Amino acid sequence: MEFVLLLAGLAGLWLGTEATIRGAVGVAERFGVPEFVIGLAILSVGSDLPELAIAIDAAIKNLQSGQTSDVVVGSALGSCLAQIGLVLGVSGFFHRLTLPGKAVYQHGSVLLGSLVLLALFAFDGYIALTEGIAMVVVYVIYLIMLLSNDGNGDGGIGRHADGKLIALIAYLVVGLAIVSGSAELTVSSATKVAVRFGWEQSVIAILLIGLGSSLPELSISVVAAIKRRAHLSIGNLVGSNIFDTLVPIGVAATISGLDFDRGMLLFELPALFALSALVLLFFKGKEGIRKREAWIIIGIYVLYAATKIVNM
What we know:
By secondary structure, the protein is mainly alpha-helical. The protein has 12 helices and 2 strands. It has one domain: NCX, central ion-binding region (A middle domain of Talin 1).
């Protein structure tokens, strides 16, 4: 029964996020926000609501029991791995993905720098309140800088969003409500599943919750790639990984300091850094990410997931 409730929670996160994104993108398009900025800032934040909601709910539970730190960290890192590995790889099958060199350096350096910052804070096995605040501040500064520039040269979407503004706002409100309730169901049921089967919470969070909460990014990025809007797809994924690295863990740490499992420090973080660096290296090349590179990225993620399952 707990497993069914976990799947229901993940489904609710996906549905709520879809509604939220529809409202957010609709409002952004009405005001002519550039496509790359929509991907990096609006879609990435919107599609990462599941991770943030899960982190907040788990952090509140952590205040009571002190046993949900692995859910917070595992779901954030698991989502990053699924997005940069599986989701980006699948998107590369539908359309060649490229980025201007300037964007690779600017946003790639922020992505890798965020992982280094997280590793430094987690090195002693604990992320304190002040460190959590610092992580959130870093992301806010990045977001302000992003929104203050021209989106790396992308023009606006060039069309008006369908529906009235009040309807788009309603999508936002309803979507956020669904995400909030689904996060509570996901965290509580995931904890019970781990206890029932004797699995580590970190494994459940990394593989199941991390992959499940990446469904919004998968649907957004694949559709964007099919429609040959590569910058929207890539911006969503890069922005999502920057957000997931800093905000869910940072916000949760400000609510309740987080224990950081040494296994994740020595395995998940290096794996995520290496995979992110490889993806950025592909983007630096003239051809970007084609089917060959997509196969390599997906293969690395599958190898990682298989390693985690074997060692459960």
